[in-house]
Amino acid sequence: MLTKQVSLNQVFSEKYRRVLVTGGAGFIGGAVIRRLLDFQGIIVFNLDKLTYSSDLYSINEKLKSLGSDSDKKYTFIKADLCDEKIIEDAINKANPDLILHLAAESHVDRSIENPRIFINSNIVGTFNLLQSSLRHFNNLSTDRKKYFRFHHISTDEVFGSLEKDSFFSEKTKYDPRSPYSASKAASDHLVNAWQNTYGLPISITNCSNNYGPWQFPEKLIPLITLKAIQGEKIPLYGDGKNIRDWLYVEDHVEAILATTFYGEIRKNYCVGGKNQLSNLFVAESICELLDQYLKKEFSHKKLISFVKDRPGHDKRYAINPNLISEEIGWVPKFDFDDGLKKTVFWYINNKLWCDRILRKSGYKGQRIGDLSKI
Ligand code: NAD
Fold it and tell me: Largest CB tally within 10 Å, which of 6, 103, 155, 248?
């Protein structure tokens, strides 16, 4: 929810007519694109490599609902950020006023098993995108230069792990602990350096854990939900007491879009839902919802089991979102109970989508990133 007066649609149709989203076939990028497609007077370009976690179904459904004009509003560009030449061509084709950079490898467990792909996509890929974006920015007219923005979507995981009672804020020192968070931290530093050295107008949001519909079912909430629906064991790492600060994906989207306009250049903004919950609490809440919806003769909580901890597992994340609230007027709209209900209900009703994306990806719900098996 935004408490500022000017509507985002108005801002976009006046300043950001051509928007390039990287990673738009993913969970958060897809939510960004579906939101942007509701705005009048803008053209959206979706650049994505289409990795295992990606899917265009939700966007295609949205486009169908918009009718015959939709192909003038949206273009998909299949491209790998690691391919310098293709990225240069894509930027020239999109000719953007705003770049929202979400494309990344995003799963910590996979980064433990195969870090190289994280270094390539998240670091080298961001470097390629910055280089092409800078050339594009330097060639813009003075008028378009005034508004151009490169906004980088990052994570709170770059700050490491928190002790009890403290919070991450924009002043927190970077201390990434996993190959994933280290690669995201590196990309944040590159983005800042391209502002400081070359004058590219950038901003960054560091957000806490997102949840909601259309998330690839390897992440905690959909994984637990699908395993529980199938009556399979629900694996929780360690003692289940690791704490994450959960944010409903649509709230993250509003924070990203508002920051591109109201946020200051070269600033990073911490985004979080003030929902610090243990993994065990989240698992039990999902089980309670499934008990209500599915009315089985057993409680789904019986499926919860504890497995060997993730190597280097960060204990606690929690965000102090005061800066983005005060400067940008953003506050989350969804409380955790409502967001979780919507999400669990969505996974119950969209089992076909889950089966299809799982089949396509080859992922069968197995543990990834177990050091003893690497
Ligand atoms: P996701 O895995 O669902 O989507 C990532 C998308 O990026 C996919 O569509 C994939 O095909 C694309 N991609 C990956 N490598 C690429 C490459 N080399 N070239 C082009 N496209 C590529 O991830 P998500 O959860 O939607 O996360 C999106 C962004 O938000 C990431 O940058 C992530 O670090 C950040 N983020 C995620 C969360 C979260 O809880 N999911 C929280 C904070 C920040």
Answer: 103
